Amino acid sequence: MQKKVRVGIIGCGAIAERLHVPDYHACSYAELVAFCDIEEAKATALAKQFAPGARVYKDYRKMFKDGGIDAVSVCTPNVYHGPVTFEAIKSGCHVLVEKPMATSLEEAKKMIGMAKEAGVLLMVNQSQRRFPAHRKAKEVVESGILGKILHVTAMFGHAGPEEWSPTGKWFFDKKEARFGAMADLGVHKADLIRYLTGKEVAEICAFITRVEKTGATVEDNFVSALKFTDGTVGTLSSSWTVKGMEADYIILHCENGSLQVGINPEKPVVANLIKPKCDIVFPLPEPFSNVSWGIDIGGAFVRAILGMEPPFCTGEEGMKALEIVLSAEKSALTGKAVKLSHK
Ligand SMILES: NC(=O)c1ccc[n+]([C@@H]2O[C@H](COP(=O)([O-])OP(=O)(O)OC[C@H]3O[C@@H](n4cnc5c(N)ncnc54)[C@H](O)[C@@H]3O)[C@@H](O)[C@H]2O)c1
Question: Averaged over 215-244, what is the pLDDT?
C-alpha cells in the first residue's frame, strides 16, 4: 500500500482553511500531521476540524525540529514565504509555497537552488492554472483555431483583502506583505499570461498607485504595458478597488478572432471567430475534485511528490511570474520601462 505523505501546514489563515487543508484532508495519499500558526488558536481550530490528534505549533522551527513531516504548505504572509521554505527544505520537506513565492529574485533563486540540492520538490501555488476555465482556454489555444496571438489583456480586481481575510491586516502593511494589489492579484495574471500564451515578457512599463486604502503602506492599484519577446504587446492590471462584481479575466486577440476568458460569468470561455464568423461557447472541463474550488492544489502537490503527475507550477515558473511584478514595480518607481533579465 502507498505510504501516506505526512503534511504540515504553516500559517492557518484563510487560504489554508479554504484550500490547502480541505484538499489534503480529501486526498487519500496525504495525512495532515501538524499545524503551525503564531496565533496558536488558529492552528488548534484547524487541527480539531480536520485532523484531531495532529500536532499544533506556534513556531515553525520547533515543528521542523520535532520532525515526522514529509511536506508542507507555506500559507503565511508573503515576507515569511522564503524564510519558512528555507527551514522546510533544510529539514528535508517538500514545499508548496503560496504566491507570490518570495519577495525578491535572490530569495526565489535560493529557494529553488536549495530544493534542487536537497532533492525535494518546490511548487508554487499559482492556483489560477488549475481553474477549469483556464484549463479549457489552454486547450483552445493549443488546438490552433485562434491562430497567432497578437495582443493580450489581463486584469484581476476585487474590493480588497478585507472581505477575504478579515483578520489579515498584514495585506496592507509593506513590512509583511512587501507588495499590494500588484503582486497579490497581478502575479496571478502575470503567471496566467505566460501559462496560456507561452509568451515571455521582454519589457514592462508600469504605474502603481494608492487611491483608496488610505491606511495602507502598499499600492491598491496597478497597471502595466508589456512587450513580449516575439514583439507583440499586452496589458496587465490589478486592483483592490473594484466594487461589485470581481474583474478576473484575460482576453487573447488573435489572427482568427478573440478568446474571452472570465468576461461573462454565463460563458466563462468564449471564442469570437471571423472565419467562419461564429461564437463558440466552450463547455468547462470537470473540476479536479469536489472540495474547495474544484482545483485540488493539495492533492496535485502530493501526487507530484509521489511522481503520479507533473507539478502544476515549479519554483522556476513561480519565479518568472515574480520577475514580472518586480520589474513592474521597478518601472513604476523609476518612471522608465524595464527589461527583464530572464536569468
Ligand atoms: N493562491 C491563491 O489563490 C491565494 C489566495 C489568497 C491568499 N493567498 C496567499 O496565501 C498567503 C496567506 O494568505 P491568507 O489570505 O491565508 O492570509 P491570512 O492572514 O488569512 O492567514 C495568514 C496566517 O499566517 C499566520 N502567520 C503569520 N506569520 C506567521 C509565522 N511566522 N508562522 C506561522 N504562521 C504565521 C497568521 O497568524 C495567519 O493566521 C499569502 O501569501 C497570500 O498571498 C493565495
Answer: 98
Closest Cα to atom 19, ligand 1: which residue? 168
Q: In CATH, what number does 5-126+295-313 get?
A: 3.40.50.720
Ligand 1 atom nearest to 164, measured from its CA: 15
Q: Which atom of ligand 1 is nearest to the CA of 169?
A: 19
Select from 15, 57, 125, 192 the residue to mutate for testing ligand 1; criterion: most ligand atoms less than 8 Å from CB. Answer: 15
Strand, helix or coil for residue 266: coil
Task: Classify domain 128-285+321-339 at the CATH class level.
Answer: alpha beta
pLDDT at 275 over 90: no
How far does residue 195's CA lie from ligand 1's centre (Å)? 24
Q: Which atom of ligand 1 is nearest to the CA of 59?
A: 32
* 36 C-alpha to ligand 1 centroid (Å): 12
Closest C-alpha residue for ligand 1 atom 28: 76
CA atoms of 140 and 90, how far apart (whole Å): 41
Query: Strand 247-254 relative to strand 94-98: parallel, antiparallel, unpaired?
Result: unpaired
Map out the domains of the chain as residue ranges: 5-126+295-313, 128-285+321-339
pTM of the model: 0.98
User: Residue with C-alpha cell 501546514?
Assistant: 9
pLDDT tens-digit readout, 10-66: 999 999 999 999 999 999 999 999 999 999 999 999 999 999 999 999 999 999 999
The answer to whether residues 326 and 179 touch, using CB atoms and an 8 Å cutoff, is: no
Does the pLDDT value for residue 290 go beyond 70?
Answer: yes
Beta-carbon count within 10 A of 117 CB:
9
Same fold, 5-126+295-313 and 128-285+321-339: no
Could you give the percent of the chain with pLDDT greater than 70? Answer: 99
Q: How far apart are CA 124 and CA 297, in angstroms?
A: 10
Pocket-forming residues, ligand 1, beta carbon under 6 Å: 10-16, 36-39, 42, 60, 75-78, 80, 98-99, 125, 127, 164-165, 167-168, 170, 184
Grid cell 497578437 is found at: 150
